[in-house]
Structures are given as C-alpha cells and as structure tokens.
Amino acid sequence: MKAAYLTAIRELEIRDVPEPRLQEPDDVLLQVETVGVCGSDIHYYRTGRIGDQVVEFPFVLGHEFSGRVVDVGPDAGRVKVGQRVAVDPLAPCGACDQCLSGRMHTCRNQKFLGCPGQTAGCLCEYIVMPASSCFPVGENVSATQAALIEPLAIGVYAQQLGGSTDGKTIVILGSGPIGLCVLLACRAAGDCKVYATDLIDERLAVARKLGANWTGKPTDLDVVAEIAAAEPLGVDLAFECAGEQETLDQGVELLSPGGKFMMVGIPETDRVSFAPARMRRKELTLQNVRRQNECEQLAVDMVSDGRITVDSLATHDFSLHQTKEALDLVDAYGDGVVKAMIHVARS
C-alpha cells in the first residue's frame, strides 16, 4: 500500500509499504477513505514536536479519518465487513487506573494514531484498529462527514465539561475547526449567545453560518472592548481554541466572576502565562480539555440524525499524493482554509 511519510520538517514522501494484517481477535482492517488535517498534525509538520512528544523521522501523521471495513477478527462484535466507520484514534489499555475510572483519554498506556512514541498515523491506504475504536455510520453519512466526527467529538466533550449552555453567554477564541466544532456543540446543547473571534475572514463567515451571534477579527478591532461593551458583566464561558497567549489573555479579561475558562487549544510553546490576580479576584475555573473522552458515539448520532451539520467545515480537497500541498496550505492558513480533507480512497 501507499503511505505518506514525514521525513523531515516540512518534508514528505509517498512510499510503498506492506499492507497491515489482523493480529488481535478484536482487530478491524480498514480501507482509509478520508483524512482530515488537524492542527496537531501541523505542529509536528512545522516543528517536529508537541511538548515532549518528538517525532522520530520517518513518521506517518494523521488521526482524523473515516474508513470502510475490509476484514474483522472473531471478536469484532458490532463491526461488520463493508460498513463505513468513523474512528476514535485512541486505543486505551483498559486496565490502568485512568481507564478503570472512566478516563480513557488519559490512559497511562494509550496508543494514539499519529502520536510520536505511540503509533503511526492514518495517512495510508489501509490501517488496523481495535473494534472499540470503530463507530459504524449509515450510508447517509459521507466519508468526509464521518472523518469530521473526530473533531466534532472534541467539541462535544468540551461543551460537556463546560456545563449547560442554555441561557449562557459564550466566547469562542479561535474559530478554526475545533472552535467551530465547539460552536456546533454549544448550539446543539442549548439556547446560548455566542461571540466568536478569528484572524481569518472566511472562518468568521463559517462561524456566522453555524450560529455565532457576533464575530470579530482581532487585527481589525479590539475584540475584548467590543464584547465587553455588549456584555458589561462578562461572559459565562470562554473556550480558548487557538493556543495563543493573546487569546488566553482575552479569555481571562472577558469572563465574569465565577466564570469558566475552557482551554481547548494546544499552544506551540512549552509555557504560557496567566494573570493570577485577575483570575483570583474573579475566582475563575480553569479547565483543560483533552481529546473527546468517549463522545464519539454521541457525535455520530448527532450527525446521523441531523442535529448537527458539519459540511461547512470541509473547505479543501486533496488526494494522498497531494498530502504535502494540504499540509502546506493549512500551515500557511492559506486560501481561507478551515479543514483540508485528504481523500485517500480516491487517490
């Protein structure tokens, strides 16, 4: 089969490698259909690392994908040959203290697709996943929609951690794919007022289409002053989805006393800072958000029954042979890109 290998910083090769085979009774062999380019992929592509997770070249990136079931082991359960599936890229051990307490996403022995030191990614034609990571979708859900289930599940989990959105005022700082997924999840969960910011006009246009009441571009106006004028008592929830010091500071300023700061974005730097006096005087809650923590099935259900429509997130299409072009586009925030989709099965 063919696979896209990151061979150095911003260098990529398409290589021929052996197809994977089933090894465990609950294994599922998938033909990869569509892969979404994630911001974390770009961290590895641009710098070769996220924190202490450092790429050893060559390495296959990618973790947001949909696939078609080609073969299954005897213990695959509900997963059947021929089904299209959305995939949770996490394979937890199921036995550590974190797994046993319902925190699969912080499993101490986890294997996560496209994560250095854990397992290679899905930018390849075939891949083996445990059946527990595979979520069948109906034929009414396209390969692109199924690949978008993974980032949507992160938005759903972030909303759940943030609590009820009904009647709340919310600011989303960074309207990239994850910020937009948070917006979709918050809108689906309750009647809320949403302020959204971003540096890219096209992403703000998508945010308005998906239900943002107000959007602002920090390079054009003082978004803190504008939102504060509309919400003089502050907002209830701030979802930081850009991983930038500027947006971290904005969230602290905009929150009302007793508000909740949801840190969803992944900073590229090793350290960020907060104004402790401001946080203490407001008695703010800081909540980190890690991945989707078993929200995949709920996200599948929400897309399948039409409660959430994810189509607006997919703005650019590429083949496996065009993977470098896709990564370069997202890396440069080019052409108003929201989510670049790599269609492996059509390559």
Keywords:
347 residues, alpha/beta, Quinone Oxidoreductase, Chain A, domain 1, Rossmann fold, 2 domains, 11 helices, 28% helix
What is the element layout, followed by pairings?
Elements: E1 2-8, E2 11-16, E3 27-36, H1 39-47, E4 49-50, E5 53-54, E6 59-60, E7 64-72, E8 84-87, E9 90-91, H2 97-100, E10 111-112, E11 126-130, E12 134-137, H3 143-147, H4 149-162, E13 169-173, H5 177-189, E14 193-197, H6 201-209, E15 214-216, H7 223-230, E16 235-240, H8 245-254, E17 255-263, H9 276-282, E18 285-288, H10 296-304, E19 314-319, H11 323-331, E20 339-343
Parallel strand pairs: 13-14, 13-16, 14-15, 16-17, 17-18, 19-20
Antiparallel strand pairs: 1-2, 1-6, 3-7, 3-11, 3-20, 4-5, 7-8, 8-12, 9-10
Folded structure, characterized:
- The chain has 2 domains: 2-148 and 310-343, Quinone Oxidoreductase, Chain A, domain 1; 152-288, Rossmann fold.
- It has 347 residues and is an alpha/beta fold.
- Strands 3, 7, 8, 11, 12, 19 and 20 form a 7-stranded mixed beta sheet that branches.
- Strand 17, helix 9 (276-282) and strand 18 (285-288) form a beta-alpha-beta unit.
- The protein is globular, with a radius of gyration of 20 Å.
- It has helices spanning 39-47, 97-100, 143-147, 149-162, 177-189, 201-209, 223-230, 245-254, 276-282, 296-304, 323-331; strands at residues 2-8, 11-16, 27-36, 49-50, 53-54, 59-60, 64-72, 84-87, 90-91, 111-112, 126-130, 134-137, 169-173, 193-197, 214-216, 235-240, 255-263, 285-288, 314-319, 339-343.
